[in-house]
TrEMBL record:
Any one cellular-component term (Gene Ontology): 1,3-beta-D-glucan synthase complex
Top EC class of this enzyme: transferase
Record-listed E.C. numbers: 2.4.1.34
UniProt xrefs under InterPro entries: Glyco_trans_48_dom
Domain of life: Eukaryota
Protein name according to UniProt: 1,3-beta-glucan synthase
UniProt keyword Nucleus, yes or no: no
Alphabetical UniProt keywords: Glycosyltransferase, Transferase
A GO MF label: 1,3-beta-D-glucan synthase activity
Lineage: Eukaryota, Viridiplantae, Streptophyta, Embryophyta, Tracheophyta
Species annotation: Helianthus annuus (Common sunflower)
A biological process term (GO) from this entry: (1->3)-beta-D-glucan biosynthetic process
PANTHER family in alphabetical order: 1,3-BETA-GLUCAN SYNTHASE COMPONENT FKS1-RELATED, LYST-INTERACTING PROTEIN LIP5 DOPAMINE RESPONSIVE PROTEIN DRG-1
């Protein structure tokens, strides 16, 4: 019965399957980081990839993934592998306006600095 509300049909169509206790208010800050924080409780294993909702998945991004995953392999000489690894996105809207150009350059700078700093944070 698409398009009808529960009150119009007299049926309760919503059903609670699983409840998750949140550590605070549902929307405390920005929506994107809050969604990523919420998704962490559903993860399994040691690796987690988060991508932007507007990030394009084209062939060049897929080619980076093999090299990206090699960074997390155990090294033979007991060198610590990185805990956080950031790859820059290709922002194809940088030429639309001056604001888009600024945001594109900001993304490049942020990821480059963040990657260099977080790769070996305590050295």
């Amino acid at each position: 019965m698409e398009g009808y509300k529960a009150s119009e049909t007299g049926q309760n169509l919503e059903q609670v399957i699983y409840k998750i206790k949140l550590p605070g208010p549902a929307i405390l800050g920005e929506r994107k980081p809050e969604n990523q924080n919420h998704a962490i409780i559903f993860t399994r294993g040691e690796g987690l990839q988060t991508i932007d909702m507007n990030q394009d998945n084209y062939i060049e991004e897929a080619l980076k993934m093999r090299n990206f995953l090699q960074e997390f392999r155990k090294k033979l000489d007991d060198v610590r592998y990185p805990m956080i690894l950031g790859l820059r996105e290709h922002i194809f809207t940088g030429s639309v306006s001056s604001l888009a150009w600024f945001m594109s350059n900001q993304e490049t700078s942020f990821v480059t600095i963040g990657q260099r700093l977080l790769a070996k944070p305590l050295k």
